[in-house]
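Kindly inspect this chain:
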Amino acid sequence: MTETSAPVVAVIVVAAGSGARLGHSEPKAFVHLQGRTLLEHALHGIFGMAEPAQVIVVVPEDRIGAANAIVRASSASPAARGSVTVVAGGSTRQQSVSRGLAVLGSQIEIVLVHDAARALTPSDLCDRVVTAVRATGDGVIPGLAVVDTIKRVDASAVILGTVDRAELSAVQTPQGFVRAILVAAHDTSVHEATDDAALVAATGHPVRVIEGSPLAFKITTPVDLERAESVLNPAPGNVVLPRIGTGLDVHAFSDSAELWLAGLHWPGERGLSGHSDGDVAVHAVCDALLGAAGLGDIGGIFGTSDARFAGAHGDVFLTETLRLVTEAGFAVSNVSLQIIGNRPRFAPRRAEAEALLGRLIHAPVNIAATTTDTLGFTGRGEGIAATATALLVPAARPAAQHPVLSLDV
């Protein structure tokens, strides 16, 4: 698709909720976060998608004027592509989505339904949902594993049993569907559902879950808003300490792969097994950066089920990791990396690797290499391990990237 082609993807942004639990008088999507409304933040993520999309914003009827002002300001961003339309929502979320579906362009093939309250959702998550819908034809929703122990209780709060967490997923948005399937689900529904996935599943169409993003949390309560504030930028006057993260990765040698280590290609050396290029050094650095920023780990962001990362090299992972860390409000101070293995002989290319990784993460990288004196799997020459430590510091976002829009609402 070229930049001038009509988009075949649409995103319906549901922003018609009252936000009573947030404790503000205005609707939730119009509450400000770091100088911009939640709706503006949500649009920023959508405009960063890999392909242009028709964007439909559904708001309370009495907020159409304010929403149009936000859209005009947001659409002036260089990242904005495709058309943006504002429509009045209904009394329920389901009605609001139906009104958004009614104004889809005739060429639209895939529809994402996204909550404006998940204002910090990264563009990459939207892209991954679109890719999965195209690949499967199924409904696709992002979700995160449930980490808390869940109990079933009766009306008196007496525990009835423990729920198996392996069967649970905390789902997020955007939820993506083939257009015809989603429209038919709304047209035939006789009951209100909590999300579009439930509507589609009720019609007999499969809906699958892909790995979500820690940044796609829903801003529902004042505590959630404080969390979003801390992710974007520390409040003025607060002293925020640096954040430290550690990473560890291990890969076995493979006779069928080329060796990529610390971002460099090592001709003539045995490669490492893995879904990507098996670069243990880069993977350890990514885990250290993500851990320091509180964003999970490399497995959660770059899942082995994602075909886009099959054979991918270190620059792909480090560039995306740096973007996520920056969006979370941090800058990389420095990284210390240690590579453990009998081969390759690393010293001759240490400076080259440090310079490459430093350019990719915009910070100094120090690399050490060692052996284990024939002990363990690395000592036996079965593979390579790497450990990394990363130091992040809070970084204010440039004002030019986050224009303040003053509205009389």
About this structure: Confidence is low (pLDDT under 50) at residues 397-409. The chain has two domains: 9-232, 243-394. The radius of gyration is 23 Å. The chain is about 30% helix and 25% strand.
